[in-house]
Every structure is written in C-alpha cells, then in structure tokens.
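Subject: Sanity check before I submit

Could someone independently write out the structure tokens for this chain? I want to compare against mine line by line before I put it in a report. The sequence has 471 residues.
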Amino acid sequence: MKSPDLIDLAVRNLRESVLRNSLTTLGITVGVASLVAMLALGVGLQQMANRRLAKSGLFDTVVVTSRRDFRSYNREDRTTGAGAAQSRALDENVRAEFEKLPNVLEATPDIRFITELRYDGKPHLTMVSGVAQSARSNDAFDSMQGRFFSSDMADEVILQKEFADELITGREQPDSKVQVTAEQLQGLLMKEISLRYAERSVPDQNASSQNAAATAQPNDSDPAALSSFSVIRRSRQLRIVGITDQDPEGIRGSARGRVFLPLKLLQDLKVMLPSEIRENTRSFSNQQTYLTISVRVKNTSQIQGVQEAIKKMGFNTFSIVDATRSLRRFFAVLDLFLGIFGSLALAVASLGIVNTLVMAILERRREIGIMKAIGASDGDVKKLFFVEAGVMGFFGGLAGVLLGWTIGKLINWGTNIYLVRQELPPETIWAVPWWLVAGAIVFAVVISLCSGLYPAARAARLDPVQALRYE
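---
Independent answer below. Compare away.
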C-alpha cells in the first residue's frame, strides 16, 4: 500500500469517530502545550539573564590585574609566567599593548578613588569612578533621570541615587522618615558640584618643588628612582547631568562608585591613585598606573583567546564567563526538570492514544478482515494504525505548540503588569525558539507512534476468517 493511500485511509478512519479521536488529540495538545510552556519559561529566563549580563558589559569583558597586586586563583597561572616581583605594573604602555591584541575593542583603566566633593558649601566624602563613553549602553543608564555625558572630556558628573539623596538630605545614612521625591532629584540636575582631588605632578629635575603639597625625593642608592613626583591639591567645578537609580558597578561591593565622571577627563586630571603610591615606593614611573584594566572583546566566543594572550604577557585575568559556568549548569538542570514535568502530561495523553486505537480495532475487525482477504499484509495493517497514531500526534503537537505559545504570552503579559505596578521595567521572561517548536511536534509524533506499537501489532495478528465472522 502506497503512502498517500495510507494517509488518506487513516484520515478517513479518524473522521468516523470524531468525538473520541478529537478528545485523544486534545489530550496530546494539552501535553505538548504544558511541555512547550515550561521549556519556553526556562529558555526565556536564561535569555533574560544573558541579556542583562551582556548589556551590563560583563560578558564581553576581561578584567586584568598585575601579579604585583593580586595572586591568581588559578594554580596553573601562579606556576607560569613572571613572578610577582618581576611582573609589570598596569600602566599606559601596558594598556596600549592590550588594545593592539586581536579581537580587542578597547582597554579601559579602572580609575576610582575616595575624595571630597562640595555641594552647597557642605563637604561629602565618597567614591569617585571613571566611566568610559562606551558604557552609554549599560542598562543602568537606561532609565536614569537626566542624560549621559555629552563628551568624554565634559566637566559633567552622574550621581548614584543614594549619593543624590545624601546631597539633598545632608545625611550619610538613609532615614526612612525622610523621603526624597522625584522632583527634588530633578532639581539637582544642572547644578554645580566641586570635586577636590590630589594631582600627581612630575616636575623637571631642576625645578623647585617648594610649592608642592607633598614631595618624594629620589633615593640615590636606588637606581630605579629616576625622578621625584609631587602631589598637588586641586579643585574642579562639575555639572550634575544625570542621576541613576541602578548601580552600574553592582559586583564591586563596597568599592563601587557613587559619583561617575568621564574616564578621559579623569585621566587628564592625573589624579593620584592609591596604586601609584604603592608603585612609586618600589620604582618611580612617569606613567600613571592602575589597579585593574578592563579589556572588552568583540564577541564572547573570543574571551578565552584574549585571556590566554594576556596571561602569556604575565598578568592575571578574570571574566564573568568563567563565573557563569555554574549559572549555565543551573539553567541546563532547570530546563531538564521543566521538560520532565512537562512531558508527564504528554505521557498521560499517550495512554489515551493506546485506548483509542484499541477501541478502533474492536470496532473495525470486519474492515481489517476484508483488507487481509483482498491481499493486505500484516505490515500494511501495522502501517495503517501507525499512520493514524502519527496523524493524531502531528495535529495534537501543532495545536499544542499554538496553545503553549498563547499560555506563554498570557504569562508574560500578566508578569509585566505586575512589574509595572511595582515600578519595575517590563521583561520578556518567556521565549519559544524554532528548535522548541520543531522538537515539540517531532516529540509528539514519536510518542504517538510508540503508543501505536501495541494496537498496530494486535491489529496485524487478527485472523481474517475470525474477523469476517465478527458481527
């Protein structure tokens, strides 16, 4: 019997018991819908986490530290390359070398320091951090009040909301009784704030340093001490252009900045950093040194290659990709369990297929006997029942995907309503990739074919003589 004839005959037989076959197909639909909805939820949550991490700039960034400052957590790194004493410091020369590596977009130094800012005549001590112009796409700046820096050398500043509250209330610790309104925060924008900092100055050898706030004289016994440096107290007027409620440096803990300036501006100010004080006690350098440098790559797939190249240069590296291995493992286990629980309904539906086809055998004994009498083989009978099971599985799987997609849309819609009421940005927590659609339909057909094994074998074993005597 040809395949088109088998399909035509199977569809005709399914039409004869519309109610029973429809209920069986509906059972498959519900099973596939539960499977699709659960797996789509797991995929959506994973994509949401990936989007957040990617937009924060963490996924495509390698953080580089000098072995002079930190020991690597990787034992292999500690046994290869230069030792801590021979390791190079992270200065401008090293940063330029990083930017020349293949697949590297930029290498930005980490400039942060605790200093005093004055607003409305009152001093405030806090952490100041430099932000590169490429951080404009960071999700922490999406919903902020005001705007991002107009240029990388603008005398502008963005405040973290907690520090903005401190400027308004005059209290370093938040007070639940004092509520800062959005109008008060808006009133801070375009106001001026004074930054006081220590400038690192490298005077000429013959120049006098009597006007310097602090001076370190070269040690003649140390050949590495080539010159002196001066620390000069400076002040800079800045304009407040933005206030962000989210924290762009959340993973830094207590070292995260609360006041953000353009990175190029901070580099031009030549602020004396704690790392430079330490380096200058070892050997004097005319270049600014940094505690860490963030190397941004073109694609996350190139992270490993860039890390290996930097390690060969004698530096320690860390990327969030290393830390997210456990996160990917968690989502893999989550998807597995969601798939198992979603498949339970499909397993129950398979029992309905077995019941439907067994009942069809009892009702169609005479038809089966006639088919065998006119030359149909046992294999033809098996194929017929297999095709009937596959047709129910296909249409049930197709309807199940549509139902699961609808359920997911409703869940996402309801979740976003809740998030908006909580004054949180809407999220897409549900996603149905193409492979899930194809996999769900194929899985439904396979389950249906497996469910048709017993009924097909039973129908093929019928004796045509006994079948023709039926009824």
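---
OP: Matches mine. For the report I'm noting this point. The chain has two domains: 3-54+327-469, 59-322.
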